[in-house]
Specification:
This protein is mostly beta strands and about 90 residues long. It has one helix and eight strands. The longest helix has 5 residues.
Length: about 90
């Protein structure tokens, strides 16, 4: 299977365990120098109407992805298990 990163960004990530909508893919993590994708990154939900920033990001290992469809990515993981604090911008 072949897919462009820009096509992956347009897909919504859904958790199979509870049907929760996690958001849209914003980034990927790649192993260097092999070039293998090891995880996808989904930004966390907004805080207080989006004014107070966002909660932790979801870093979802590639092995947890069960299906990539035309509009969504189905993942088999618990959302709280893949949360990672956001990096502070200076």
């Amino acid at each position: 299977m072949s897919i462009c990163f820009t096509d992956l960004q347009c897909k919504e990530v859904i958790c199979l365990s509870n049907g929760q909508r996690l958001g849209f893919v914003s980034d990927i993590q790649i192993e260097i120098p092999e070039g293998n994708i090891c995880a996808i990154v989904v930004p966390g939900p907004c805080r207080i109407l989006g004014v107070a920033g966002r909660h932790e990001d979801y870093i979802i290992p590639w092995s947890c992805i069960k299906k990539i469809g035309p509009d969504i990515v189905l993942v088999d993981t618990k959302p709280n298990d893949c949360r990672v604090p956001r990096k502070k911008l200076l």
